[in-house]
Amino acid sequence: MGKLEGKVALVTGGSRGIGKTISAVLAEAGATVIVNYANNSVHAEETVRNIRLSGGKAVAIQADITDEKMVGRLIQKAEEYSGTTIDILVNNATGPQPELSIEESTWNDYLDQLVFFVKAPLLLTKAVLPGMKEKQEGRIINIGSEVVQIGNPNFSSYVTAKSSQLGMTRSWASELGVHGITVNLIQPGFIPVERHEGIDPRDYVKNVPLKRIGLPQDIGAAVLFLASQDSSFITGQTLSVNGGNTFGI
Ligand SMILES: NC(=O)c1ccc[n+]([C@@H]2O[C@H](COP(=O)([O-])OP(=O)(O)OC[C@H]3O[C@@H](n4cnc5c(N)ncnc54)[C@H](OP(=O)(O)O)[C@@H]3O)[C@@H](O)[C@H]2O)c1
Questions:
Q1: What's the total number of domains in the chain?
Q2: Could you give the residue ranges of the DSSP H alpha helices within the chain?
Q3: pLDDT, tens digit, for every residue of 100-157?
Q4: Which of 51, 90, 159, 192 has the greatest number of C-beta atoms within 10 Å?
Q5: Ligand 1 mean position to 66 CA, how many Å?
Q6: Short-list 90, 99, 95, CA closest to 199
Q7: Radius of gyration (Cα) for the chain, nearest Å?
Q8: CATH code at 47?
Q9: Which structural domain, as residue segments, surrounds residue 31?
Q10: pLDDT band for position 220 (50/70/90)?
């Protein structure tokens, strides 16, 4: 029996990139996976088809997670499909991540990132909390980034929004622990996915103590750990999954 048998997991941006692998790993562990996407149904349906071909349970549900009404409909449809409430929420989706100098950046560029990494997780968490509180159990896993430690230049809107996830994770963990709900943050290093095609990772790898590039499976394995009973006494924590790239920082 899989570690997540009987559980329902919602993976935002679960259709491609890292989210696709997170969806597959959670389904392989027995969870019913809600594969959320925004624009591209082809990727989402392919992800669901592959999960089903492997014997897993999944459904694709389109919703712009930055829109409160759509989040409400997403959770309603997810609960209709699974017949119960969400047990595991993985806040993974991302929009475009523009690299801009301070002079080029506007307040709206910052807001765009905050909308993805703070507003959307807030809307989703509020929507799944009634079910989690009723069950007195739940897992909220935020996908952050190692850029918070590195402070990459010309990337401040993204770095700022990813930094907000740290305090948000800790505060939510403090507030929700009494309900048996854990909240943790995973900070991946560079994980090349479809959108990074053509980028040579060798320079990045030079500084990574484990001397290899990160794979979506590395993040999937960390999410599975934090989603399972194995992590039941872990909350408010940050797990860097980056081959040791930031351990000295
Ligand atoms: N890859 C890396 O190197 C890396 C490193 C550190 C951290 N991260 C973090 O890991 C997470 C996943 O990154 P990724 O590289 O795998 O991203 P990605 O390949 O660009 O995939 C983004 C996903 O988000 C979905 N999405 C976009 N806008 C959405 C919206 N408004 N509502 C719902 N879903 C939406 C996309 O669906 P559609 O295709 O339908 O638009 C897609 O499934 C992000 O939080 C990112 O910041 C990534």
A1: 1
A2: 17-28, 41-53, 68-82, 107-114, 120-135, 147-150, 156-176, 202-206, 216-227
A3: 999 999 999 999 999 999 999 999 999 999 999 999 999 999 999 999 999 999 999 9
A4: 90
A5: 13
A6: 99
A7: 17
A8: 3.40.50.720
A9: 8-241
A10: very high
